[in-house]
Structure formats: structure tokens, C-alpha cells
Amino acid sequence: TSPPMDPKPSSTSPPLDRASSSAAKKPAKTMMMICGTDGSGTRSAVKLLQSLGVKMSVDDAGTMDIHAERANLKGWPSIVKKILPYAREGGGTDYRPSDLPPAVYSEAIDWVERLLDAYEPKSPTAGDSPGTEITWGFKAPVSMHLVPVFAEVLAKRGQGLRVLHVVRDGRDISFSGNQSPVRKFWSLVHPSQPVEQVGAEAAALTFWDDNNVGTYKFGMRHAALPSELSRALHIEDPVQLTGDKERMRELDGFWMGFMV
User: Fold this and answer.
1) 3 state SS of 138
2) Lowest mean pLDDT across 19-28, 59-68, 88-97, 108-117
């Protein structure tokens, strides 16, 4: 089931300077980032995209993640932990980068710039991936905390961004053995509520809600093609419907999430 998401615009994060119709000029390059709460099924999405010919950067063949350790990036937590204390109101995922303290903003922009330079495949060409507009992509569930920064950096580069936001039922996540996000980041978003006081399962469900609703709200406000957000694809559907050509044609073009 989907989270209780409110699509109404908010004043927290004004729209980026992007065209708002499909008539906008197509960017020379478009990057895909796959994100979501750990354990949501993002690995399956990578394999599906690879089968469609999308170039996906991968550090870990087991999880299909990139760990952001190239170019002295020192991993995702090194920058996420610096952003979260200033992004609590948006659940840690919905914020305007320019509202961060100047030093944090500059570091976040520089960090994402270096990640793009380190992970983008050599000389990717738009249209290399049959049936998609994606030039290349990566998967890192924790990257949902940096969608606003990636959107700003890629906009300045004149490049497109598509976000595949994978959402799994939060009740499943709350009882999952993978509680890495809560251990790493809970205290930064909820500093006055220790996990021991809230309870492990309740904390996991609350953090799931914080992150996924924030990501959804950011996407609803900044999507270049908002209509693409009007339908959702369950992660099981591509597997179950592969043989149904009519249904797959119906899904084509919107299942990849949103473009900012």
C-alpha cells in the first residue's frame, strides 16, 4: 500500500527552474536514481532496468548499490548526516538546498558534483538504452535524502533527472531485520525521541513515513511532467505482467517514477 501522501503544494520548497511541459527541450543527458527505504525492492528495479538496456553504475554486485566511496566521497552517511539536522521539517527528504547553512550547502553541492563525475559511465549517449530516455543511472536507497541536491546540480548542468522512488508497505519495513536507516539517522530527524522510548518498530514505521512522504511531496511539486505521478506501479508488476503485451504497453512511459 502507498503511504498517506498529501500532494498539495507547500511553501517549504519552491519549484526548480525547469520547464513544466513535455514540450520542453530534451536534455542531452538524463540520469536515473533509484531510491527508497532499505528493503523496499530497489534491487529488483536495477535488474529490470538493466534488462531494458539502461547503463547502471554498480559498486556491489550483491545489493546493486553504489556506495559513494570513489573520489574520496567517504560514503553516503558522510553527507546525509550533515543535511538531516536542517531537513527535519520535510522528513529528511523534502527541503530546498539553498536553505541549508552556506557551508553545508556548498559541501553538499560539491559532494554530488564529485559523485556524478566519478560514477557517470564514459561518454554515455542519450537514447543508448532502447525504449527509454535514460542515459545512465544508479541505485542507493539512502540517496532519497539527496534528491533535492541532485535535482539542483543536474539542472545547473543542463541535464535531466528521473527518480524511481520504490515504496514498500511500511508495516513490512517496520518488522524487517534491516533497520540500518533508523540506527544511522533517526536521532538526527527526531533528536528528542530516543528509539528506546519510541520502540524499534514504531521508530522504523515513523522514519519510513518521514522519508517516503517527504520524497513524494518533493516530486509532486518539482516534477516536469506531473501527470507521470498520477499512476503507481507495484514492484511486482513488471515480473507478473511481462507476458502481457497490452498491459506492458499501458505501463510504458510512466512506471519509471518522476522527472524533475
Assistant:
1) strand
2) 19-28
